[in-house]
Amino acid sequence: MRIAWVVVVLCLAGAVAACKDRSDAATPDPAAIKAQQDLMKRRDALLENRQRLENQRKLVVEQIQKAEAAGGDTKELTKQRDELTAQIDGQSAELGQMSDKLESLSTKLDSAAEIAGREDRLAQREGKVAAREATIGERERTLAAREEKLAQREKETCGTAPPMIIQAGKADGKYTKADVQPLLARARATMLKKGVLVPDLPGPAQGLEGESTRAMADGDWGKAYFAAAQLVAMVDAVKIDRAFIQTKMTRLSAQVKASKPDDATNQQLSSALSDVMQKYNDGNFAAANQRLNQLAGLLK
Questions:
Q1: CA distance 176 to 198
Q2: Residue ranges of the domains in the chain?
Q3: pLDDT average, residue stretch 188-200
Q4: Class of 2-156 per CATH?
Q5: Between 208-218 and 177-194, two packed helices, what is the crossing angle to 10 degrees?
Q6: How confident is the model at residue 13 (pLDDT cuts 50, 70, 90)?
Q7: Integer Cα distance of 277 and 295 in angstroms
Q8: Of 123, 47, 149, which Cα lies nearest the Cα of 92?
Q9: pLDDT tens string 220-250
Q10: What DSSP assignment string belongs to the chain?
Q11: pLDDT score of 11
Q12: What Cα–Cα distance (Å) separates residue 109 from each residue in 25, 114, 117?
């Protein structure tokens, strides 16, 4: 787990360093920005000057037209018009060259901006990955702590079952209903308290209550007594622990598959099994057993 956290920290550090390097690399060149701004100022000045020259030429052209209409001399005016036209053409050529330079600079700056945007998106993605790694590391630590806790609880609860104690019989071997019925009542009460069903008992113990009851009906009080005493010992030995829940879940799952329940019942069974797994994973075996008993009731 410590290694996982080291990896997470390194990922975070790497992401920060990478973001810094990319940020420096993707920053637009200040010299290029200044050159673009200077060119735009010169272009605006040229445009303004060319507009002024065009206005002047327009006035000269109007004067030429008036002079020609009046039969006057237009030689000097024509010279002014030609000079203005030459200046306008020269400035138009200069504006064309300036536009090419501006377009080239804009392309470079746009590329830098695009790279910066792409790098920013990558940085955000890496940040999310680093955060996800940190979350995974935290989750692993939580799971490890839970597993350690469950292992300790299992160690405490899954010990060796106590040996079966068979009560010593009477010296004279004579038993009555008063000897048998309290034992059966005790076994039933203990099963109810623990939430133990008859199928939860070891195979030989599942028929002990019936055996004792039949012996009582036959008047065989000795046989009834020893069957009841064995049942009490078996029930007392049952522990509601991890192994018990695993065995019970396996048995009931097989019953669920074999019963082919309808959709409504199947939904209830699925919900019950999900709840059982949650309580089982939390180490709450008594609560898990109660839910399994409810599930068993649905299968009847």
A1: 25
A2: 2-156, 163-238, 240-300
A3: 94
A4: mainly alpha
A5: 160
A6: very low
A7: 13
A8: 47
A9: 999 999 999 999 999 999 999 999 999 998 8
A10: -HHHHHHHHHHHHHHHHHHHHHHHHHSPPHHHHHHHHHHHHHHHHHHHHHHHHHHHHHHHHHHHHHHHHHT---HHHHHHHHHHHHHHHHHHHHHHHHHHHHHHHHHHHHHHHHHHHHHHHHHHHHHHHHHHHHHHHHHHHHHHHHHHHHHHHHHHHS-PPPPP-PPP--TT----HHHHHHHHHHHHHHHHHHT--GGGS-GGGGGHHHHHHHHHHHT-HHHHHHHHHHHHHHHHH---SHHHHHHHHHHHHHHHHHH---HHHHHHHHHHHHHHHHHHHTT-HHHHHHHHHHHHHHT-
A11: 45
A12: 13, 9, 12
Average pLDDT score over the chain: 77
Whether the per-residue pLDDT at 162 is higher than 60: the answer is no
